[in-house]
Amino acid sequence: MKKLIASSALVVLLGGTSGVVSTEQVSANTATKSPQQEEITKKNLTEQSVMSVAWYQTSAEAKALYLQGYNSAKDKLDEKLKHHKGKKKPAIVLDLDETVLDNSPYQAYAIKEHISFPEGWHEWIAMGSAKPVYGAKEFLKYADKKGVEIFYVTDRDHKQDYKGTYKNMKDLGMPQVNKEHLLLKKEGEHGKDARRAKVRKNHDLIMLFGDNILDFDEPKESTLKSRTEFVKKHKKDFGDKYIILPNPMYGSWEATLYGGDYGQSPEQLDKLRKQELTYFDPKTKTTKKSEIK
Ligand SMILES: [Mg+2]
After folding, report:
1. From ligand 1's centre to the CA of 211, what distance in Å?
2. Domain count within the chain
3. DSSP per-residue letters across 118-173
4. Residue 284 lies in a domain
């Protein structure tokens, strides 16, 4: 058992995934190379995503979290509509990827082929066959029935992805899927602020839905600290005006770890992924920041 634990820990250090590399293989590797000397490849990096994609695709907990988000959103929507005042029509804004649509088959493909975004991404969208996340369709149908305007604000590329996205959403029977409400990112556009402002101009934007902090607001800077500050500042908004949904597979949280630069070497990206981790140290019986440099 001791040997197994040690091996698993080493696999994590090496950037591999437990279950993929056997104890024997690890022993063989360590005979010739120390973890520091081990070369980190793109394959190692993509395999680090196995557990997050497995959780997202197979766990009951992921499904329950989506239901929790959309169930509580329904109650909040009722409450907000009850107190709605003014001439502007109530509206909601939803992100698409991992908020309404489940793209985890693309993430699994990326692991299998050891590729990274955007390789294969536009082909996946063109297929138009992403399934909806739990609870999304029921909630959207309910909001539609209640007379709420629904805007889908996604950073999918308007030019390349509109057709596939439109087909996917229509085939799923999602409400209000048309040019006015399905807003993809146009050339030269950065972030979602301008599109949200456009919605606010003629509507009372009562709720926003996303799997990413940027689906709610555009912070001035993107650092771990500023993102945490944003959440603290809006602590009463989550579960109320803001409905956040689970996505452990990718997101601006990951970009923040890399300082926004995905073009770094696999070795560097691996290091950046690990250096913010807080470790338990059994010797000192404390927790501390990573010593991996
Ligand atoms: Mg998203």
Report:
1. 5
2. 1
3. TTTHHHHHHHT-PEEPTTHHHHHHHHHHTT-EEEEEEEEEHHHHHHHHHHHHHHTT
4. no
